[in-house]
Each structure stands twice: as C-alpha cells, then as structure tokens.
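Re: the 261-residue chain
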Amino acid sequence: GGCGGNGTSGYIAGGGGAGGYLYFPSQVMAFGESTVTVGAGGVPTTNSLYGTNGGVSSVSGLAGGSVDGGGAGGSINAKKDGVDGASGGGGGTQNATGSSAGGAGEGGTIGNDGGTGYLRNGVSSYLHAGGGGGAGAVGGNGSTTASGNGGDGTQNSITGTATYYAGGGGGAAFNSNPGTGGQGGGGDGQLYTQTGNPGTANTGGGAAGSGSSGSTTNIGGSGVVIFRTLNTASATTGSPTTTTDGSYNIYKFTGSGSITF
C-alpha cells in the first residue's frame, strides 16, 4: 500500500492507494525454485511532501507474476495531487488553491483511482481530502461535509477463509468527518494535528491521510503472496506460514523468500 500524505495548518492530506491485487485461479509453474518478493509499504516524509509508493511484489517464473504498489496520498502545494500507482493516492487540499486530483490506478482487477480533495470558498472547515483507491472500488471524493473514504479491496478465499485485501486509505479532514479506510487494510483518516494511521500489514492496504506534517506512522501496509496447491513444497525460505484447506497446501509469505517444488 502507498503511504498517506502529511498535512499541516491549511493543508489536508489524501489517503494512500492500495497495493495491486493479482489473483490467478489456475496457473502452471515449472518445477524448481521460485523467488518470492513481498513489497514493503510506502513511507511518508516528515516535511509534508510526497512519501513513497508501495513496493513491488513478485514471483519469479510466474507469467505476469509481478504487481506494483499503491500511490502515495497528496500533501501540500505542488504535491497536493494524489500519486499514480496500482491504485491511486487520494488528493490533498489547501485553503489557498482549492481542490486537487486523485492519482490514477492501473485499472482492471488490479486497482482503482484515488478520490479528489475538496475546498469550498477558501474556508478551512471545508478542507476534506480524497481517499485512496482500492482493488475493488475507487477512492471517495472529498465533499462539503466529509473527506473521501478509501476504496474497498477485493475479497478472496485462497486461504480457506474469506478475506479482503488491498483497501485504500481514508482522507484526512481539518476538523470533522475524516474518511474511513476501505475494507482490506486501509487506514482511517485523521484530523488536523493528528498523526496518520498505517495500512494493515500484509494486506496491501493504503495508509491514512495525516493531519500532521511530522507524522511517521502513516506507512502503507506491506504485501502478501499466497500459494494454494495440491503439491507439497520440497523447500521454502523466508518462513512462510503453512496451513491446509482440505487437500490443498497453503503457503502464505508475509516476507520475501523462496519456494521450491
């Protein structure tokens, strides 16, 4: 997930976009070792400028098995637009120049656009930022009454339990009604002076927009890579969690490593 933006007096930050969502319901892999890379969440800066997008997750030897991280939320000045990513970051807003654009998502089932920030008539009480996009829905736009919610992620039962992944972060607000995070690990937006909520680890959730310029807590949620297979791995590295669901073996990587069949 992308980091949330950092705001300060007169500047309200957008939520981070979710990491990309890829699901292969049936896929052939060659025998041998495959390298698994789990992307890290995006990290904010402390000077109200853009932080980083989420990192790339990938599986070597898997056709199309690489997906981008989410876009960072907008912050201030020339950095108030949300950043493009797998899902786009939400737009920030400031009381001098008005609304802003959300970042673009990559579309399809991977991710959606972030929402726009909103300002009415230069009044700071109407500063409502946009939410970050999620895998299943666009980020909400800021309005006269509330900041945008993060877009919901996508539900999947690959582990045997229905779980949402890749939700966007909620937009921050000046003094009322920040956006909530999308289902799938998106962080809830914050008010002015409050530090931002992170995306949930190993969901790809986007972090919340922060109301503080010095927030270091609005970090995007790290990614996850999951294999569901009738085969049994002959070796793994990186300590994946191994469970079963009926006849299937489930290998859940919350950190980078490798798997060998």
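The longest strand covers residues 248-253.
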